[in-house]
Amino acid sequence: MAKKITMQQIADQLGVSKFVVSKALSGKGGVSESTRERVIQAASQLGYFTQPRGYGQAARREPERLPSASSARQSVLVLMPNVRFQTRESLYWGRILDGVTETLEEKGFGVIIISEQRIDAVTSVLNPSGILGLIGIGQISTPLLLEVHRIGLPTVLIDHEDPLIPADSVFANNTDASMRLTNHLLGSGHSRLHFIGSSGFSRSFRDRWSGYRAALETHGIKPQDGDDPMNTLTGIDDGSFEGELRQWLLKRRKQRTMPTALVCANDSVALVALRVLESVGVRVPEEVSLTGFDNIEDAGRAQPGLTTVHVPKEAMGRRAALRLLERVQDAKAPLEKILVASDLVFRHSVTECAPAREAAGENEA
Fold first, then answer.
1. Residue 12: pLDDT band by 50, 70, 90 thresholds?
2. Residue 232: what are its φ and ψ, rounded to 5°?
3. Which residue intervals of 172-256 are DSSP H helices?
4. Which residues of 205-236 are buried (b: 16+ CB within 10 A; e: fewer)?
5. Percent of the chain with pLDDT strictly greater than 70
6. Distance, CA of 114 to chain centre
7. What's the gap between Cα 146 and its chain centre?
8. What is the dihedral angle through the alpha carbons of 296, 297, 301, 305, rounded to the nearest 10 degrees?
């Protein structure tokens, strides 16, 4: 049997007192944010969070079975902090939320939705015995997830995972879908592609970037600029990267090295790119093909309609809700990372690359 990891061991590794470790892990004040992060990281590395009857495991007694219809109505806490446009009105996040709430209501459970991630706002409703578990949608801070874990609340995360805190998670199959989308462009004759987005923005963006690069590598294509400069854009969440993208396109056009296709991290990025391309006199798809990801409603309304990847947003929400109920029934089951398959949607923003134009571009590069 593995030896139990204690707070004292964490303290010894960091060179701090056991009192500091206790304060940091309890979510209480009295320690700096940097110290709290160091403690959480050390505890995770030592296996403190995952050990049997470890941190938070005894704080809450898990139900052995779901409540029957005759039992008192229980609720699930759904956390969708209002950051990065993660709102109910979002064409992406709102559909995921719909899938979560509809499924839980069909199963007879109440839903409490919290749209901020102040720890005190969330902890005020974490203790009541009527809370069955938590579903987190999108980016959620580590300190808040730590507090949920400390209480022992069953948790499922959608489109997010925390490297320090174990939880079930649900994602779209971003890597494979991005690879298939890029392969479609390559099969249409495009060999001068660029990724538009920021792989550091979220786990999903990073996986989409990985799929894009994997497709290029499979075909023996190296990005012209090494690590694509348009993969480090800032202002992704509010579209303020528009000026930076415009300057880059103008420079490429002046150098006569325009790409033949742009692979965007999501539809919102692609719609901004479409606007920028039009503003500098570049026609889509005649001069540059353009793709998005997510298949939000606006992607189909664009002119031209956006070739993209359909992410089954409501299905992701439904699967997360069902996974939470499974977790409540079997708290000791192995954690799962669930990937929901996505499909390509072909519209008019992509066309075959003209051989003559491609050849001319290679001569100019």
1. confident
2. -130, 30
3. 174-187, 203-218, 242-254
4. bbbbbebbbbbbeeeebebeeeebebbebeeb
5. 81
6. 19
7. 19
8. 40
DSSP 306: P
- What the block records as the tokens of 11 is 């303290």
Tokens of 49: 């969070």
Phi-psi map region of 53: left, alpha, beta (phi>0 left; psi -120 to 50 alpha): left
Query: Rounded distance, CA 136 to CA 78, Å?
Result: 6
Here the tokens at position 362 are 């290679």
Bridge partners (DSSP) of residue 156 are 135, 168
Dist CA 208 CA 342 (whole Å)? 12
For residue 38, the SS3 value is helix
For tokens 């296996």, what's the residue?
47
Name the CA radius of gyration of the chain, rounded. 23
**Contact by Cβ (8 Å): 296, 91:** yes
Cα gap 224→192, rounded to integer Å: 8
For residue 36, what are the CA distances in angstroms to 142, 249, 294, 344?
10, 43, 35, 43
- C-alpha to C-alpha distance for 27 and 126, rounded to whole angstroms: 13
pLDDT per position as a tens digit, 191-223: 899 999 998 888 899 999 999 999 999 999 876
Give Cα 180 to chain centroid, integer Å.
19
Sorted by where each starts, the structural domains of the chain and their CATH numbers stand as: 1-58 (1.10.260.40), 75-166+314-340 (3.40.50.2300), 174-307+346-364 (3.40.50.2300)
d(CA 226, CA 99) in angstroms, rounded, equals: 40
